[in-house]
Each structure stands twice: as C-alpha cells, then as structure tokens.
Design a protein that fits this description.
The strands form two sheets. Strands 3-2-1-4-5-9-7 form a seven-stranded mixed sheet, with helices on both faces. The chain has a two-stranded antiparallel ribbon with strand order 6-8. The chain contains ten helices and nine strands. It has 275 residues and is α/β, with parallel strands linked by helices. Helix 5 links the parallel strand 2 and strand 3.
Amino acid sequence: MPTEADTATARDYYDSAEADEFYSKIWGGEDIHIGIYEETGDIREASKETVDRMADLVGDLAGKRVLDIGAGYGGGARRLVSRHGAGHVTCLNISSVENARNRQLTAEAGLSARIEVIDGSFDDLPFGDGAFEVVWSQDAILHAPDRTAVLDEVARVIEPGGLFVFTDPMQADDLDDTSQLQPIYDRIHLPDLASFGFYREKLVARGFEPVAVEDLSRQLRNHYFRVQQELDARRGELAASDAFVDRMIAGLEHWVAGADEGRLAWGIMLYRKLG
C-alpha cells in the first residue's frame, strides 16, 4: 500500500516552483498530458486532440457525472464540459499548486458551477460507491506507488455500466529485459511501469470488460521529443536553473530513446464496468 511518505514525495515535486513552471509554461499550459500529433506539431493543440479522441471513444457525455483523477491544471475537464457537454466534472489531484491554478482557470472560463476541484490522492477517493458514470485519467496512474489500489478505487466509484477511459505511459508487454528502462524508473521513483496487458488483466479481474484499446505508442515518442525541443529552445524564459533544465532534458531523452527502441507504450484504453 502507498505510504504517507510516497504521497508527500509526489506532492512536494508537483508543488515545487521549478516543476510548476516547467509544466505550466512548457509541457502544455492547461493540459500537461501526452498529445496526439497527427494534425499538429503544437504541444497545446496536440494535448487537446487527445482529450477529443478520448471523449469520442466514450460517446455521449451529455449530463454525465465525470471524475478526472490526476487532473493537473484541469484543461481536460474544462474541454469535457465546454466542448463535449459533460454535466459535471470532479477533478481530483494531489498538487495544491496545480489545483489552485485549476480553480482560477475554471473560474475565468465561467465553469465553476460545473467543475469541482478536490485535493486528494487517487488511491483513496473521497467519494461514495457508484458515484460516477465516467472515470477519466490522463497519464497519472503511472505515478501511483500501488496501481492496483487506484484500480480498486476506480472500480468502487464507477456505477454498474459506467466507463473508465484513461491513458498512461507504459512499458511494452512481455519485455524480457527491463534494465534499459531503469533511468526512467529512477526518474519517477518507482520500480516499474504498467503495460496494456497489466491493465487488461487487473481491470477484468475487477469486473470490467474492454470496449476499445487504441495503441498510439508512437505519440509518446512524439510528445516527449517535442517537449524536449520546446524546453531547450525556451530555457531563457524560465526562472529555473540551467542544472534543472539540463536534468529535465536528459530525463526526456530517456523516454524518447525507450520509445524508439520499442520498450515503451502509450494509448487510450476504454473499459466498461459490468453488472
């Protein structure tokens, strides 16, 4: 089970001034998730494309109660409400700094009545059983010290027949040698990554059935490469030290290399809770 120390480590990182500046200015602004670069090279537009692709897979969101776990700055939630008609989105996120910006941006968009932002951890969701029709997550579960605890909570708060749609940076299925991914594991302070097979096995065991799985692994490479380019080109705009920027660029390069070697995976997964 995750410990208070695990939670504090993640919170301290995302609440730090350097990390907040990096994610808000470079990674995507309102959206800090992996983008789809089929129609654009712009990080922000590619991130919106991911939200739209996920929403299209879910289908009719009109009036639906949605929980976004690991919501970041809330760009996805605002797009779900303003563009896709979601009735109400609850954003659950561990970073108080990101949550404060989410509330501010949501208020500026005039959407505070339909989007709620809650400080909390996704392995201990403060909601009743079956409280949501859709649970949504973008590139967040990899950070969980115990991913099965997150899936237990997701299964609990989705109503029967409800949908779980998510993305996650993963390792490829059936890797014989994971040693070359060690720099990535070290970067996220965890022993491994999940995989398409891991999520299929664990979710089926928790009473879900797969509806659609889109393998978009090449987009992971595209995204980390674009963020790396953007960070290097705009380093002079950041208050962060050169040491921080150089460290981030080196970390991003590990993701690019892992993707080029076929060791990493990413995609959109949609599961339905049976019953």
